[in-house]
Each structure stands twice: as C-alpha cells, then as structure tokens.
Amino acid sequence: MLEAAERIFGERGYQGTSMDDVAAEVGVSKPLIYQYYGSKDGLFLACLARLRAQLLETVSDAVMAATDAEDALYAGFVAWFQFLDDHPQAWSVLIDEGMLSTNPAAGPAAAATDEVRAAFIELISAMVRMNLPPGRTADNDEIEIIAQSISGATERLAIWRSRVPAPPTPEKVARTLQDLLWQGLQTLSTA
Q: Which part of the chain is the HTH tetR-type domain (predicted)?
C-alpha cells in the first residue's frame, strides 16, 4: 500500500492524489485505506516516515563505513544522490511544493515534511562534527550554517538532476560537491 501511495504522491503531488487513486492502484477499498491510515494526511505521513527512515539509514551507513572524514563526506553525498536515483518518487514526495509549511492547506503533512528536512540537517550537523578535518573546530553557529548550506546544496542539486535529460552520475556530483565543501571545512578556525 505504501509503495503504491509513494509512487502516486511522487507522480501527482499531494494535492493531486486522492484516496480513490491509491485504492484503485492497490486493488482494495478506500475504507480499508482509511482504516489503516485514518486520512490522506495519515497515508502521506506514513509514506514520509518510511522514506525518511530508508534515506537516513542509507546515508548514515555510507558515512559510517568511510575510512576518513573526507571520504565520509563523499560517501554520504553518493548515498544521497544514488538513493534518489533508485527511488525517483521518493524525492518528489519529500519536496512536494504543496507540502511547504507556508501552504495553509497542507496541514500536518507539511509539518512532517519540515521534520524530514530538520532530521537531515541534524544528521548533517552530527556528521560534520564527527568529521571535521584534524585540528579543526567549529562552534554551534558554524555547524548550523554548514549543515543548512549542505542541505540546501544537496536539495538544489537533486532538483537540477531531476530536470536535466542526462544528469551527471551521483559519484560526479558527490565528488564536485565534496571537493568544494572540503576546501571550506579546511579553513575553519583551530581551537
């Protein structure tokens, strides 16, 4: 049920998806979906929770398996972009513009989308703290600025890659972004 809902939300967006669409795709009655998820918001929230867990696990595993800080940055980026390539509807669900918290019609699903972003920023912050270059430090504000910047850069690159006919590979995007950011991380003040 969730796979079908993710696909439909990914293709049509939150506003363009109905419970009838999901029920028809899965081959069950609409009341059965309501019984499991309570509402369209509930179904969307279940999709987001599942995608969030899969994506966080994928990126975390890649970073933790890295041999050093520089490789951890690269491995995390490759995992992020590869996951989005392997699950194209996931990205559409995660960034559905109908889910912006500034959209009053979006309701609790928009807050959940914001929570997904916040979870990734928290993950990025932890990874930056753990993987600062040797002898380098950063205060909480610097870590937040770095995490927000990385989050914004990866989101924009993912959007761009989804719109070009022949996007660069996850490895190429990751290497270019990693090279750019690693230079900046090298300049953080020493404590």
A: 1-55
pLDDT grade, residue 47 (50/70/90)?
Answer: confident
Q: Is residue 73 exposed (0-12), middle (13-18) or buried (19+ Cβ within 10 Å)? A: buried
Fold classified for 51-189: Tetracycline Repressor; domain 2 (1.10.357)
Separation between Cα atoms, residue 177 and residue 149, nearest integer Å = 11
Boundaries of every domain in the chain:
51-189
Q: What is the pLDDT of residue 61?
A: 93
Ordered DSSP codes for 150-187: HHHHHHHHHHHHHHSSSPPPHHHHHHHHHHHHHHHHHT
